[in-house]
Protein 1
Amino acid sequence: MGEQVKKNTGGWRSNKWFRAAIPALLLHCSIGTVYCWSIFSQEIADYIGFSKGATEWAFSFAIFFLGMSAAFLGNVVEKDIHKSSLLAAICFSLGMAGTGFFIYYGGMHQGSMLSLIGIYLCYGFLMGVGLGTGYLSPVKTLMLWFEDRKGLATGLAVAGFGAAKAIASPIMQTMLDNLGEGGIYKMFLILAIVYFIMMFAGHLLLKKPDGWHEPQKQEKGQGALDVIKSKPIANYIGIWLMFYINITCGLALISQEKMIVKCIGLASAAGVIATVSAIFNAGGRLGFSAWADTMKDRNTIYKIIFVLSIAFTGIVLVTNGIKNGEGNYLLIALVLGLIFVVNAGYGGGFSNVPTLLSDHYGMGNISAIHGITLSAWGFAGLTGNQMATWIVNTFGTEVELEHALADGSVEILHVNPTGYQFVLYATIVLYIISLVISLVMVRPTDKAKAAR
């Protein structure tokens, strides 16, 4: 197959960049904007007359249904990437347009449960289905086209998912600032059209390489669960748990990132730091996966991610960096280092899981197996943020910090430094558990054993 692909890379119709990389970026850069939720969540809550906590569930549902749709529709992606990528474009853009409509309705009928439920269904369920199928659709195609650099290829696409927040956030903020009254629902309606065009273009371009189907048929023969059971089941459970815990820890810290930055006296730079952390997130997706291509056992990259996360979390805990960081440049650097390392490791966990799975279980049912594994993302979406919120609300006490604004006035910030430190106690324990799992449960592949 690889030889045939190389023969057919002359024209754009059979070029791996036009048929795999570019459509993957079009799809992932669109659906990745789900992580822009924090940019407009407060505006939605204010516009429809509900608390921010009530509207936050829309994002949690989106991530949950991303994982569930990937798990249950993985076989659809396996059989026909054109149907799955079209389904992704339709569901994601309809979900975004529907969210805009129900925000509009909520503005007309403040406090209406219909508007809140409508947002849950559109942003949570419909967009979630678009996210799951859109995330999966290009991954196997990339690995088939870039069979010698599978990690680099999947990292490139998944980096688009991570970079979407950095790209779209300033655009969304500009739209909110300039669209006038009702700008929040107008933004959703406009972006629904833009993202449908991008995703539909990706759907039209996406194509598996000529000759891929014959080896696929030879490998297939059995379902995804049968393939998983062909190896010790503890191996797959270990991969699933590593993936789940890494996402849970990442979401726990990222959800508190803005408040932690305020604690260390960088409130005025919170927007810049959020952009830089998003770049680390995207860079981790590309860098860690490309690095893993050079390793005999891709599981090594997870061990590196967990060791780095444990080290930086431990240093910030020992120095009490969040509580004592304001005015101390060394502690500020350590806290920022923690934020950036966790973001990079969070992204790297995503980009390496499909290639790790393909090393263990082959390419025959990789879309379906990857889809089942993404259920970990769905469950982490329901637990990561909520775990951190519960810890912050339960431990420590809220204190007031003064923040000087550009116009000379002073803003009072309410933060809980002790609570954020306790979040780190929870994440370091989970990271240690993940490291043990990667060492004990996830065994080296046959290829890695042979290379020893």
Note: The chain has two domains: 14-210, 221-443.
Protein 2
Amino acid sequence: MITNTVKNELSRIVGDENASFSREELVCYSYDATNKLSLPDAVVFPSTPEEISLILKMANSEGFPVIPRGAGTGFSGGSVPVEGGVVVSFERMKKIIEIDTENLIAVVEPGVVTWDLQQEVEKLGLFYPPDPSSLKFSTIGGNIAECAGGPRAVKYGVTKDYVLGLEAVLPTGEIINTGVRTAKGVVGYDLTKLLVGSEGTLAIVTKAVLKLLPLPEATKTMLAAFPKMGDAARAVSAIIRVKVVPATLEIMDRVSIRCVEEYSKAGLPDVEAMLLIEVDGPKEGLERDCRTVEAICKEHGATEFRAAEGKDEVKKLWQARRSISPSLYRIKPNKINEDIVVPRSKIPELVEGLGRISAERGVLIASFGHAGDGNIHVNVMYDKKSVKEAQDAEAAVVDVFKLTLELRGTISGEHGVGIAKQKYLEMELTPAVIATMKSIKAALDPKGILNPGKIFPKAVEAADAEHKVPL
């Protein structure tokens, strides 16, 4: 628990109206999309890096944790205050400071919603590609903390590929600027890339310089339906082999298709698998690429192939795709949502392996996601009221991770480690690698006050019981 002296000082730093200690408001900042709940001792809403610096300096002297928070849309528990402390929310730091159309950069505060930035730059004929499923709610700061990706990653990459520089506050309170505003820069260590994806454990980002691209001239969205999941997976590999790089290449299995169709009534075909494909670029050549994609899909057994007609149909298809995750709760009340990645050429083997695991463990597995870059969202469905179902689901997750690593993949492509994947970290990383990461954390955060209890294996259950929120 923080002391009354600390509470008074927090109120002085950010203003009485921008600090909260009431249980009702603290509960609102106690969880993210994992629904793992842990109560903070306070929530503050700073407006400047200087205010954050003062909070961190006080945290070092008084010994309380500080947890940065964007919109709380993460799937790994990264913003959950597992050891209590002070949540720093960026709801007041949401300015788009600059859009430089000559140098193709934007400068933004961390509380800017990803969708809002995209809409503003597109008005100027520019393009910010990262598009996580939560883009209409998630913030740039949270995207940076988790190195968010999205469907367009197959062609355009992920958040780290668009962060040129950062203003950040170190755990000890120093304000630093990393990176550049230029296309190149190799002076010293790349601290920018170190901070991107560090899950709010190494610094608190207060400003970001982001790379923009010219807006693609034209886009075409297509749907391909397959009677077999394996055929759809092989079509993905074939599309990439002929060097057509779609802007998006999404895959959905039968469970996902059925659930989202019941949920959204989007008119999706009743098949075992579906690909949602988007090609963009200059109008010249776009139709050629589309014809190539269509031919490959049909060669691999597609029973239906069609292009979306008009913006309304495109919007409807993408709304359906982004609705898959919530729609799955129609099957079972609980799910374990993993975001494994394998080399694209291994997707057919992954699909076969997931089917085998589902049958052997007796659990339903729904798979969908960014097949174009090998990033598949594997959802193990269960009912936690059944001890056996819960145990089988956990065992299936371990099987999925083992399969992923056997295929030379990684156990997380977008969601991060947070608290959700801590116990699996050593499956992928060697002791030497983990020790190196811990030494970096200790160097920047010697007192361990910034977002403690994340990434590295730790007995989260041992956190003070007083912080746990009863369900």
Note: Confidence is low (pLDDT under 50) at residues 459-467.
Protein 3
Amino acid sequence: MDSMLLLHLMSELFPHKVRAIYIDHQLQSSSRAWGVFVQNFAQQSHIPFTIQPVIVDTGNLENQAREARYAAFESHLKSNEVLVLAHHQQDQTETVLLRLLSGSGVKGLGAMKEIEQKKNICCWRPMLSVSRQQIEHWVEHLKIPYIQDLTNFDTTYDRAWCRETVWPVLQKRFPKMQEAISRTSILMQDADEILHEVLQQDLNQCGDLNHLDLSRLQQLSLARQRQLLSFWMKGKAIYRPAFEMVERVQQEVICAKADAKAALHWNHHYYVRYQNILYRVEKNKYLQKDLVSNVVSTIELQMDASLQLASGVFQIQPMQMGLSPQLFEQPLQLLPRQGGEKIHLYGRVGHWPLKKAIQEAQILPWLRHTIQILALDNVMLGVFTPKGFWLAQSSYCEAGGWQPNLISDVNYLRVEQNS
């Protein structure tokens, strides 16, 4: 009923600028016939029309159907188009109630917005403040045909249960409940916008999308710490983590003993503490630390050549002090770290354990597997690290030589070039 009314209103208000998409979830035998019904109405109103079948994945049926529906909308929408949806005031109130029962925070209780960016879709809900009774009156007055979906009354679905079982009880006690809860959603949207501004300021002060400085984080109130952690863990995902997961990061990672190698996995990322910094590391990058390669490889280099290694992308460049150009004529070895190696860093006195040099440079533990040694005939020429190339003192060092210069880090992001 609400969708058919919306289709009629849009065709009247925006003739020649509206088109309709019917999403066939293929969950009911009559769904195809419903699409034909809407198609006939659209043709009579001279509205371009599309029927789009979708496959709904297994799992929570309501959630999976919604995901399939919006994916289909996104595939059809053009960059200058707006998706107009028929959600009304009772839909909004039901959403708030269901989210309240699931333990949602401020953002969840804000429910649906009249104008909202959903992934790559701009959504407009012009009937969000319109009651179900008003819709029924308009449909009857305008004599708009519609089909009643009987699953709307099937209380095995949460929304139908809320509408058929909970709603009458609450409305009998609180006749103005719908308007009151709808108003609450608007207040929650305001609160969420204010909270987002505060959290963005806190994030700018404490770190970025990939790390948080715990000394700065702990200067905030406990409430702001918890909210910032939740906001930060969400990253670019759609939903924030569950309250229990935020508590686990606080207790199992942040509050773990200083020498503990604590890490917690959530939503394709590991949350790891190192040197009083909390890091957010992609799962595949974190687990690669356990896949250390013992393979020795051979490379040949030349001036200006680029070299993509596990630790980053390096470019061979002339330097005031570097390696002899004669090495360009010879096959060089790339060796993995075995442990126990020592390096005589150019410009420093004596040999250092390579492990100590790595620790002093504060190379993150889960990136240390990317370190490789450049050698020739058992002579260490230098070390490739995520923080650049370390030149070793050897008979191959000379003025006006060359060095590999790190131009992109281990994530292949552009870095400042060394002078």
Note: The chain has 13 helices and 20 strands.
Protein 4
Amino acid sequence: MLDVAILNDLRSIVGSDNVLTEKQDLICYGYDATQMEFLPDAVVHPANPDEVSAVLKLANREKIPVFPRGAGSGFTGGALPKAGGIVLVVTRMNRILRIDTENLIAEVEPGVVTEQFQIAVEKLGLFYPPDPASLKFSTLGGNVAENAGGPRCVKYGVTRDFVMGLEVVLPTGEIIRTGTETYKAVVGYDMTRLLCGSEGTLGVITKIIFKLLPLPDAKKTMLTIFDSIDGAAKAVSTIIGNKIIPTTLEFMDYATLQCVEKRFSLGIPPEGRAVLLIEVDGDRELIEKQATRIQDLIAPLGLVQCKVARDNAESEALWKVRRLVSPSLRDVNPTKYNEDIVVPRSKVPEVIRRIEKIQQKYDIPIVNFGHAGDGNIHVNVMIDKDIPGMEAKAHEAIKEVFQAALDLNGTMSGEHGVGLAKAPYIELELSPQQIAAMKAIKHALDPNNILNPGKMFPWKEQSP
């Protein structure tokens, strides 16, 4: 609990209406997309970098943990206040400050919703490609903190590939700017890339400079169904091997197809065992040629069905299959652990087979879908917590899924981050020397371990 004097100090910084202490308000900021919940001592809504700085200086003086938060849509508990303390919500800082159509850059505050930013730049004929599934409500500050990805990253890259510079309040309260507005800059350490993906442990982002691209002229969407996982995976490598880089290559396995078909009856052929949702974009004439070439390339690979959208309405109809996956999963079991392993593209069939063996070993449903173009598979371990022992088996299964990805030269997280959920497993992937180097950076910037303590590294070593 925070004493009255500290609460009054917070109110003097951000205004009384922007400090929440009632339990019903605190509950709203104690959870995210995981199954975990923690109650903060206070929720603070700053309006500008100076207020963020003042809050962090107060927290350092009083040794109070601070947990930065945007929309709270994360899948690993990255914004959760496990130590109580202050949840620092940046959603009041939600302005698009400028869109520079000459230099193809934009400057925004962290509370801007991802989709709203995309719509704003597209009205000017520009394009911001990163498209996490949560784009309708996730905020850009959170996207940067987690280095969010999405379906389009196979062609365009992830969030960090579009971040040119940041304004950041360091854990001790100093305000710094990193990066530049130029495409070339090699003066000093690359603090921008260090902070992108740091999960709110090294600073609070208060402004972002993004690189933009010209808006593609057109797009073409294809829903392709294969008679095997191997055929779908071979299609991915064949397409890219023939020098076609699609905008998206979304993958759904047989278990996913069963879930969707059972609930929504979309007419998926019974012999279908895997789906690729393929989209290309660019010059209208070029993408027509690419779409035809893709169909020719994948036809011998066990292709059961290929639907090609003729316009945007039909494209949206094809994407419906992918978007109906999440609501379908609840029919399997009520609780979902959504992991996001990555393996080299060619290893996707092998990791799926390993996951199938893990599923059989623990007798737990596991449903797989994701971004086949970059090997990023969302592994959904579905459980019923009311069944004794099922939750414990799920955690053992998840550990083996992570190990399977690592054995195939992959990683245990491609876009969700580590947060609290994956911190217990971080030593599977990182050596003691790597972890020590990261902790040294954390301690240098945050000597009192005020900012988002317990995230990434095991909690027992990170409590303030």
Note: The CA atoms of residues 259 and 329 lie 6 Å apart.
